[in-house]
Design brief:
Number of strands: 0
Number of helices: 13
Largest sheet: none
Low-confidence stretches: none
Structural class: mainly alpha
Strand content: under 5%
Oligomer: single chain
Order of helices and strands: HHHHHHHHHHHHH
Length: 262
């Protein structure tokens, strides 16, 4: 559950936390587009390294490492699947390894960028940004509630797992199907707890006359500052350069690059 813990917002004063959530979302979308555009290992390494200054400036290194560690399991599956299909599909060993590494790194880059976004963006500000973008309030509320409850449910799942392990449940025992069945005692109380939470939330919303007023007002209004302008300019530049290189240059593989240097 560490990947969800690594997405949990923590209020800290930093230049990245103070940025407008709309601009940060545009930046994350740009990173997503660039990661999809490139299937080679070298540009994906550059994309990965390029985001580390954001992690340092935001002061969320520990949480970021936790999200990366949580993504290791899925990353391993992606690597093995791509390697097996490439190698037995007739490609060479080094070519298969590099291709599988590139696909895995693409997934890690996406987790990394969204991790930075969710770690540094308050769900309240995210909902406010959606409202100011004229998204219907019902959708904004549903989205922010989901974002807010994912870490809560992850924490609850971890508590249930610890409790079941203390009662003798061995999650890692048996073959693949047995391990899936071992998670049933975790899922049932988790689903019951989630339904109970949703009912309590619905009752709280009804008691406060949610939706009675169509014209809502907000205490805060998001405004763009100099840092936001710098980030949007940087995002536009990165995206433009990435598209230009994709269209007019051939990206060498890591093996070709190392071969030309040696």
């Amino acid at each position: 559950m560490s990947v969800f813990e690594g997405l949990k917002f923590r209020k800290v004063y930093s230049p990245i936390h103070n940025l407008d959530p709309r601009i940060k979302f545009v930046y994350v979308c740009a990173i997503f587009v660039i990661a999809i555009l490139y299937g080679e290992l070298i540009p994906l390494i550059v994309l990965f390294v390029m985001q580390i200054p954001f992690v340092i400036l935001a002061g969320v290194k520990r949480e970021w490492f936790r999200s990366m560690r949580g993504a290791v399991f899925l990353a391993s599956i992606i690597f093995l699947t791509n390697f097996i299909f490439a190698y037995f599909g007739g490609r060479g060993l080094t070519e298969s390894l590099e291709g599988a590494s590139a696909m895995t790194l693409r997934f890690i880059v996406l987790v990394e960028s969204f991790s930075i976004f969710f770690l540094t963006t308050s769900p309240d500000h995210l909902g406010l940004a959606l409202e100011q973008a004229h998204v219907p309030y019902e959708f904004c509320f549903a989205f922010t509630t989901a974002v807010r409850f994912v870490p809560v449910l992850a924490e609850e799942a971890q508590t249930i797992m610890d409790a079941q392990k203390a009662r003798g449940l061995e999650l890692e025992r048996g073959n693949f199907l047995k391990r899936i069945r071992n998670y049933i005692p975790i899922l049932i109380p988790l689903i019951v707890s989630a339904i109970r939470r949703s009912l309590e939330l619905a009752e709280a919303m009804e008691s406060r006359a949610w939706g009675a007023t169509k014209k809502r007002t907000n205490l805060y209004v998001l405004k763009m500052h100099r840092g936001d302008m710098i980030l949007i300019a940087l995002t536009t530049l990165i995206l433009a350069v990435a598209i230009y290189i994709r269209l007019f240059f051939k990206i060498p593989s890591l093996n070709q690059l190392l071969g030309s240097l040696l």
